[in-house]
Design brief:
heterodimer; A: 379 residues; mainly alpha; ABC transporter involved in vitamin B12 uptake, BtuC; 75% helix; 0% strand; B: 331 residues; alpha/beta; Rossmann fold; 2 domains; six-stranded parallel sheet; 11 helices; membrane (chain A)
């Protein structure tokens, strides 16, 4: 555990991974005959250079925070929930059901109801795979990914059939005006900041940040969180300590599914203001990368979600103003996922050797070292 | 006047002059991507034809997500592009919002309808074109069973299938029309393997002509039909050349013309609803050297007669999307 200082683990490794991914992306851009420096400039100015760019970056980041948290919570119980996509789709259905059929007087109440409904639908979608895992041992990876397809089919049935608005498009009617969430333009307008009106980032960003704090408190400051982590580290030990595996699997997956479902208040209620087909658009899968990169810690998830928001918005600007095909933008995004998620050990192992070598030369004083190990063990 | 105001004034003036100098048209492709051998590619062909003929240049973008629709519209409008052409019905909702914010920019939406003073809505009467190829299918069929393979199960695709079934039943009241949809997610637009499986299944049920209205999935349908020695019908673009002598015809949907016309008219493009049917040459069936041997003079005469009747308004083909039902087939 003490091969490397903690700062190197949480900051240095992701940073080096990012730089490697950026260098490789630059080569790819060079290879297709465009200037990588221009491209990076465009990505940064497009995603972070204006309130407009920030508005989109934060909008995407909000989606990724919810799905990233969802994957993290399940991951603490060593459940690999890759059904975030389907759970987010069901969350969208939950939002639509509440907003289309019930007239709400004000967005605040509508947001509460929609959040509750989205979480309930998302959790319900995670419940069956969780039950099958807990009682029957059906592998959660297989069942959750299968449920993504069932969710897509269910949404399609609802949007082509009973919930379809009149007209061409397979989508629900637009939600009533009263339920539309205030965007950052409206919110910052109150305190006199002129935020771009076009960008879709909205009040659910703050719900996502609150969810980050809540997940942190749950995992590290409650008994349930302790049980989830204990179960994740060792099932036999947890069982020996009187923790019910069935309960932990169910609870962790329900919370996970609920968080993924909550994403719908951002993309369905906040942005589209109606339910369209394939509303989640892969954010459930990006959540896996976000959770891996964020080391399943809410703060890490928050930062990783911002990074992926930047990549999404920056990528959109590249597609708009440079002659770069969208497949190549996916390649660039994939390189970042590959380096930060999958190739973690490639950076970690040499880095650990370097730190070990450095430590041998100058042995650390015994006092603080003992203290830090005991602090880490307590975590 | 504060420095900030001066700065804003200067940027505004700059933006205005840039817009005036730049007035290039712009084209936004739908999620299927530019090279889908079908709808989007047809739009791209139209834009390229315009660029080659006039030497002009245009901006274009392929979208990655739904949230980018409004974004792309606003960015192009603020950049001074005019007109801004978008391919796909999914733009209708974002465009309704955006069009009002840029009254001096002209927008052209293909396959969707938006009522705004600065929007041209181009819709195609796919049911009429499908009716014509449905007639050809029933006339060419020896088994009396013809197949339809749709892409994603949405009303627009059912509109194709409904027109096709009506055409088949019109020439052969005993004809059996088998309809299958490839899937329920957007992946259904690009799944040639599944298209191939469905074709084999329809052949098993006796079909000897299949019509694919399924984007990239259709490539698999046409391939399997050629391999199994039955006839197939292409869609959107003329796909007769893909398997010479094996593709009966293609239902043409001239998206390229819609884009070309809009680009040619430039900022003066006429707004309002523009229905491109058989009468205006917006839809039809393809006849070229690759399928000349498959279409007998009798078949051609029958179809041309029907086309003339549709154009004259004497023959009404039922539009599935008008009431979400079809007299000739159940989906």
């Amino acid at each position: 555990m003490d091969r490397m200082p903690r700062w190197a683990d949480v900051i240095l490794i992701p940073l080096i991974s990012l730089i490697l991914a950026a260098l490789l992306s630059a080569l790819v851009i060079l290879f297709i005959g465009e200037s990588p420096i221009e491209a990076i400039k465009l990505m940064i100015s497009g995603a972070l250079g204006s309130t407009y760019g920030w508005g989109y970056t934060l909008y995407y980041a909000t989606n990724f925070m919810f799905t990233g948290l969802a994957v993290s919570v399940a991951f603490h119980a060593r459940m690999f929930n890759i059904g975030g996509e389907g759970q987010a789709l069901l969350g969208g259905l939950g939002v639509a059901v509440v907003l289309v059929y019930i007239p709400w007087p004000h967005w605040t109440i509508a947001l509460l109801a929609a959040t509750a409904s989205a979480a309930a639908f998302g959790a319900a979608w995670a419940a069956l795979p969780a039950y099958l895992q807990a009682r029957r041992g059906s592998h959660i990876v297989i069942t959750t990914i299968m449920f993504n397809f069932i969710a897509a089919a269910l949404l399609n049935w609802a949007l082509v059939g009973p919930m379809k608005a009149p007209g061409q498009e397979p989508a629900t009617v637009s939600f009533p005006e009263a339920t539309n969430l205030p965007t950052l333009h409206d919110i910052f307008g109150i305190i006199g900041i002129d935020w771009s009106r076009a960008a879709p980032a909205n009040v659910s960003l703050f719900v996502a940040i609150a969810a980050c704090v809540a997940v942190w408190a749950l995992i590290w400051r409650t008994r349930l969180g302790y049980e989830i982590r204990a179960f994740g580290y060792s099932e036999p030990a947890a069982r020996y300590a009187g923790i019910s595996p069935f309960k932990i699997i169910m609870v962790a997956m329900l919370i996970s599914g609920g968080l993924a479902g909550c994403m719908a208040i951002n993309n369905v209620q906040g942005e589209a203001e109606r339910l369209v087909l394939n509303a989640a658009e892969g954010a459930g899968f990006i959540g896996i990368a976000v959770a891996l990169m964020g080391r399943s810690h809410p703060l890490g998830v928050f930062l990783a979600a911002l990074l992926f928001g930047f990549l999404y918005q920056g990528g959109a600007e590249l597609a708009l103003w440079m002659n770069i095909q969208r497949e190549l933008i996916v390649v660039i995004q994939a390189l970042v996922i590959l380096f930060t998620g999958a190739l973690d050990n490639m950076i970690r192992m040499p880095l650990e050797k370097i730190f070990l070598a450095a430590r041998r030369k100058s042995p650390p004083p015994p006092g603080p070292d003992r203290k830090s190990t005991s602090a880490e063990a307590a975590e | 006047m504060t420095i900030m105001q001066k700065l804003f004034g200067a940027t505004a003036a700059l933006a205005l002059t840039a817009g005036a100098a730049l007035a290039d048209p712009a084209l936004i492709f739908d999620l299927g991507g530019k090279f889908d051998k079908s709808f989007n590619e047809s739009a791209f062909t139209g834009a390229q034809r315009w660029a080659e003929e006039t030497g002009g240049s245009y901006n274009e973008v392929e979208l990655q997500s739904d949230a980018q629709r409004e974004q792309a519209l606003r960015r192009f409008a603020e950049n001074g592009n005019n007109p801004i052409v978008m391919a796909g019905f999914s733009f209708a909702t974002p465009l309704t919002e955006v069009a009002a914010d840029y009254p001096d920019t002209k927008f052209v939406i293909i396959d969707g309808v938006v009522e705004a003073p600065n929007v041209r809505s181009v819709i195609f009467s796919e049911h009429e074109g499908s009716y014509l190829v449905g007639m050809l299918a029933a006339l060419a069929s020896e088994t009396g069973t013809v197949g339809f393979i749709g892409g994603m199960d949405i009303p627009l695709i059912r509109k194709f299938g409904c027109g096709y079934a009506q055409g088949a039943v019109a020439v052969n009241p005993d004809a059996t029309v088998i309809a299958n949809m490839t899937g329920t997610t957007p992946a259904a637009w690009n799944d040639p393997v599944r298209g191939s499986e469905l074709t084999l299944a329809q052949i098993g049920q006796g079909a000897d002509v299949v019509y694919a209205a399924a984007g990239g999935t259709g490539v698999g349908v046409l391939q399997t039909a050629a391999d199994e020695d039955i006839l197939s019908i292409g869609v959107d673009a003329n796909q007769n050349y893909l398997h010479p002598g094996e593709v009966l015809t293609s239902m043409l949907k001239r998206v390229d013309n819609a884009v070309y016309d809009a680009f040619t008219d430039g900022a003066d493009v006429e707004t309002g609803l523009n229905v491109m049917g058989v009468a205006s040459g917006g839809v039809g069936y393809a006849l070229d050297e690759y399928n000349a041997d498959l279409i007998t003079p009798e078949m051609q005469a029958a179809v041309d007669e029907a086309a003339a009747a549709i154009a004259a308004g004497d023959l009404m083909v039922h539009d599935y999307t008008s009431d979400e039902s079809c007299p000739a087939i159940n989906f």
